[in-house]
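Support request, priority: normal
Reporter: lab tech (M.K.)
Component: structure prediction queue

Hi team, I submitted a job for Allophanate hydrolase subunit 1 from Rheinheimera aquimaris yesterday, and the status page still shows it as pending. I've pasted the exact input below so you can check whether something in the sequence is tripping the parser. The sequence length should be 230 residues. Please let me know if I need to resubmit or if it's stuck on your end.
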Amino acid sequence: MSQVQYQLSSAGENALMLYFEQRIDPAISVLVQQACELIRAELSEHLLDILPSYASILVVFNPFSTDLYRVRRQLQDCLQQLQSANDSTGKQIELPVYYSEESGPDLARIASTKNISIAEVIRRHQAVSYRVYAIGFAPGFAYLGEVDPLLQMPRLSTPRAKVPRGAVAIADRQTAVYPAPSPGGWNLIGLCPTAMFTPGATPVMPVAVGDEVRFVAVDKAEFIRLGGEV
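Reply from support: The job had stalled in the queue. We restarted it manually and it finished. Here are the results:
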């Protein structure tokens, strides 16, 4: 097994940033997932927060119970335990989507731009299993990749002032579900009735970094039955 390449740098008085190879790659994402599990076990009560991303992890520790040098050594020990990035231990998640021009105002434009039918846009979006690479932008906003190359679309030149909760969207090679109403510049193709962030619930999100997500089309009646609003 080849040695895992990484960089470890200070990110403040009580934080360290761990960088793997900086590219979007399922194998790198598996390493991030494995490293997070090892770090949680190793730092235990000293860990205040751990924030994984596409190819990096921010580790925030309690400066009153440990110190930067000890944590650095512990992280280095964790990284020596990383295994080959073959399999993910993430969950398999299905998210229902009401795809339509009513619920996805950019659906027809994507179809026209790519010279395919709306039905083909919907088929291709459902055909892929998407990895949760990162959580960011807003609580519950999961960055999922990667979409079919034909569906790749740039962000809108002028973001919308308000995107509805549950909006399913595409930007570049990523797709996502907006967890709450917010401004946004992604291309909207449908609505998902599943709550992506519920404070006070356990867990607060239905997905986590390392999970695999598939979208499943539902009609309007089923979307409303599941709690969606148009």
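The chain has a mean pLDDT of 90. The chain has five helices and 13 strands. Let us know if anything else looks off. Ticket resolved.
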